[in-house]
């Protein structure tokens, strides 16, 4: 079953075993293209449903359960898996009410992956391809989650990992993961976009395999967020899928996933996709509002560090997703992100700040009457609660300058005697 690489702009094709990230003819982004016509007779809902609950490789992974749509020609022995995926889809009526949804709101929690973010789905795809290509070293630029996933999967594969960060702007939980998993960590005196430019130059110079989401095999793994969510919904497509937008890998992967599922007849309609950006890191939003007449970049500034990216590498693929799905882009303030996060946390689910864009954005789009109140919405939570605990404590203790604490869970203090405890608990009792 043949797959190949194809430029999304000029259509130039390349062999799947070639180490290439941009089209040699026009510089465009590349897709991994599968033979959907051949697959049409081989993969059905029943194919994937029969693998649910598998106990052995590769189908115990929520990525490789859909192997025919990820990397069908890859030998099973080359797969590097944790396993990942199989994350929960939460039905959250209380949060639906807060967002103004009267239909149904689900949250797909990708923070339940092995290293705590959706990046594990991409890394099992990318590192497995690196192994198949015989690569010994892999690298990425990162706001934190990519590096944690890369470091973990490279360690499992016996590869050396190199990660570039913006100095002083990576949540300690994420930095600690990268160090613990054995990656070589380089702090750059510049923002993520500078780190991204540098890592591409380093990979070209030293023959290191680049595993940022410009690598199309990363996005093949991330597509499975949509495959799995739709499988959990009994293959009934929701009205909307809402996702945070940073480097726009998920936004890009989701459109490709929906396009392929529709082409194969596994879903009977394509949901609309809403990409939500932080107001301080909003190049796709600016492009969308300007009718995509140009490709804006910004100097990113947001507390949601996972999406603090001003020049996303997957801009063109995300734009394609919006075209395929009649999608929209919205922006939310850091205040709105923190308020939504407090709601998700208090629901017993929890997420990192960037993830809360999904709920904050849903609420905004309902208010603006873009999302209908009776809609069925799937929001994606991209990272685990403990990825950035400092923001949690600073929010609830009022230590974040310039922000209102609208949903505080205040820490109580009491002397070591019963009367003091009783006074402290006065608001609780």
Task: Give the CATH level 1 class of the domain at 89-116 and 218-396.
Answer: Alpha Beta
Portion in helices: 25-40%
Order of helices and strands: EEEHHEHEHEHEHEHEHHEHEHHEHHEHH
- Give the count of helical stretches: 16
Low-confidence stretches: none
| Proportion of residues in β-strands | 5-15%
Averaged pLDDT, please? 96
What sort of overall outline do the alpha carbons produce when their principal axes are compared? globular
CATH fold field value of the domain at 89-116 and 218-396: Rossmann fold
- Global structural class: alpha/beta
Q: Sheet bearing the most strands, described?
A: 6 strands, mixed
What would the keywords be for this entry?
429 residues, alpha/beta, Rossmann fold, 6-stranded mixed sheet, 4-stranded parallel sheet, 36% helix, globular
